[in-house]
Design brief:
CATH architecture of one domain: 3-Layer(bba) Sandwich
Keywords: FAD, Flavoprotein, Oxidoreductase
InterPro entries: FAD/NAD-bd_sf, GMC_OxRdtase_N, GMC_OxRtase_C
CATH class of one domain: Alpha Beta
Family: Belongs to the GMC oxidoreductase family.
Strand content: 15-25%
Structural class: alpha/beta
Order of helices and strands: EHEHEEHHHHEHEEEEHEEEHHEEEHEEH
CATH topology of one domain: FAD/NAD(P)-binding domain
Organism: Paludibaculum fermentans
Shape: globular
Largest sheet: 7 strands, mixed
Protein name: GMC family oxidoreductase
Length: 547
């Protein structure tokens, strides 16, 4: 494996190796550029992944650990932020693409122009994107074929046009999918096989899904989940021009008096400070961490944070929203097997003014519980919480339950943001992110409306008992979007339509932070399509001597 020296001037430093960073590293290195990827987490190989629920989900062995990297949270500026873990991301090579559920929807064409289609939403910073679905479609297709996506083209009557089918057929339908599909059709809806970033068949030297069930939040030892760790990072390393450098906690992107970035300063695994020189930097750390890093990189030219002449860095933060409803069924479902999701509907996806609010939802059928989490949080809140009756209930409900999850709109609101906490520090002595977020009134109405639709579906599926969870409990966010929005106006956005910073010509910001709207969540396909497009633009700019 190639090793560049920190004093060596490489073409690109990529900060983060997840859904976007891994794609960018592969594209730039295969285009002939020298690339160093700085990943704060470990380089965990497939043989090291485990099905230990306690370690993975409660000791955070492959995700950010709040004991080392806390954040603070408040609902508004009038409150004092408290230390509360409110966001999660994969902290290892491959990032969140290693442990995500693997839903892989494209955004719909109208998602890119909803401000024009729907009109203004008071109290929000609702805006059209500077790119269209048609412009992004070739990159969606490239992502699906390079990463490896299983699905059925044409099965979703609401999706946009596509230039190629999925490279792999859908994964087998689960019991939840069968019951959900029957119920949806009974209600006049249009269920379809869930597009999943999991291989239904062997593909490009990787094995197919073994249906072990340990998928969401876990790494895949079969290499069947189409993470960047399994798909594109090996291709990047194979070029001999890409070094994946793990255990590197970046604290600052360095810039010069001319306003150009010159590299990144990070702490290595021994907490020694290192400066890696580069001709250009690609920031792909996620919607919270990327904003934090720019705010921690001020200079004389950018006193309020790198690339922040607009003051928009960190603003318009969008949350991972959705209602969760569960149902008990008469017969065993064996939902603990295979991937979490096999059927979806998009009938409620589009916004409809007749509802009296802005918003919509995609809804899937799933069982994303494991024994410990189901015992702690999966049973009806009204049931016994301890003792022999609790034990009996747990044993029965675990194999007779499935849930629906709605993936709902999170409206961009400028006051919802990420900034630096003035007092709380992480284990390295650096400021932690302070998250300020509250639901837009339309988001709250949308969540309750979606919850009611989910109850209808579960009842139509034959559930003998249905229970749900409060929709105003926003919980922990995994989809971190909108904090460095893309736009044509440098005064109201941070990056241009190719993810290039308006203020800094050799800085690209490529992750969920550039999303202008949230669609109906499930941003990974769009993030990766944007990453392929941005990498192409960065390579062209480099070849033309612009960076």
């Amino acid at each position: 494996m190639i090793t560049y020296q920190p004093a060596e001037l490489v073409d690109f430093v990529v900060i983060g190796s997840g859904a976007a960073g891994g794609v960018v590293a592969k594209e730039l290195s295969t285009a002939g550029f020298s690339v160093v990827v700085l990943e704060q987490g470990a380089y965990v190989k497939e043989k090291d992944f485990t099905h230990d629920e306690l370690a993975v989900n409660y000791q955070h062995t492959i995700a950010n650990n709040s004991k080392l990297q806390p954040n603070t949270f408040r609902s508004s500026d009038s409150e004092t932020a408290k230390v509360e873990q409110r966001y999660t991301y994969g902290r290892l090579v491959g990032g969140g693409s290693v442990h995500f559920t693997a839903n892989y929807w494209r955004f719909h064409p109208d998602d890119f122009r909803e401000r024009s289609v729907f009109g203004d939403v008071p109290g929000s910073s609702f805006a059209d994107w500077p790119v269209s679905y048609d412009e992004l479609e070739p990159y969606y297709t490239k992502a699906e074929w390079e990463i490896g996506i299983s699905g059925l083209a044409g099965a979703n009557p609401f999706e946009g046009p596509r230039s190629k089918p999925y490279p792999l057929p859908p994964l087998p339908v689960k019991s939840s999918g069968v019951l959900f599909e029957r119920a949806a059709k009974k209600l006049g809806l249009h269920p379809f096989p869930a597009p999943m970033a999991v291989l239904s068949q062997p593909y490009r030297g990787r094995g197919a899904c073994s249906h072990c069930g340990w998928c969401e939040t876990f790494g895949c030892e079969m290499r069947a989940k189409s993470s960047t760790l399994a798909s594109v990072i090996p291709l990047a390393e194979k070029t001999g021009r890409c070094e994946i450098r793990s255990g590197c906690y970046v604290r600052r992107i360095q810039s010069n008096d001319a306003g150009r970035v010159t590299g990144a300063i990070y702490y290595d695994a021994q907490r020694r400070e290192v400066f890696q020189r580069a001709r250009a930097v690609v920031l792909s750390a996620n919607g919270v961490e990327s904003a934090k890093l720019l705010l921690m990189s001020p200079s004389k030219r950018f006193p309020h944070g790198l690339a922040n002449s607009s003051g928009m860095v960190g603003k318009n933060f969008m949350w991972d929203l959705g209602a969760f409803v569960s149902g008990l069924f008469e017969h065993p479902l064996n939902e603990y097997k295979s991937v979490q999701v096999s059927r979806v509907i998009h009938d409620y996806y589009a916004a409809d003014p007749k509802r009296g609010f802005y918003g919509g939802a995609g809804i899937d059928a799933r069982f994303n519980w494991f024994p410990i989490s189901f015992g702690l949080d999966g049973l009806p809140p009204s049931g016994p919480q301890w003792g022999s009756e609790y034990k009996k209930m747990l044993g029965h409900y675990f194999n007779h339950t499935f849930s629906t999850l709605s993936h709902t709109t999170s409206l961009p609101v400028e006051a919802n943001r990420v900034d630096l906490d003035p007092t709380v520090k992480d284990a390295w002595g650096l400021p932690v992110p302070r998250l300020t977020y509250q639901l837009h009134p339309d988001d709250r109405k949308n969540l309750e409306w979606a919850r009611q639709r989910q109850v209808e579906i579960l009842e139509a599926a034959g559930a003998t008992q249905v229970w749900s969870y409060p929709v105003d409990d926003i919980g922990v966010s995994a989809h971190l979007m909108g904090t460095m929005r893309m736009g044509n106006d440098p005064a109201r956005s941070v990056v241009n339509r190719f993810n290039r910073a308006h203020d800094v010509p050799n800085l690209f910001i490529v992750d969920g932070s550039s999303l202008v709207t949230s669609g109906r969540q499930q941003p990974t396909a769009t993030i990766q399509a944007l990453a392929y497009r941005a990498a192409e633009a960065a390579a062209l700019a480099a070849k033309q001597g612009e960076i």
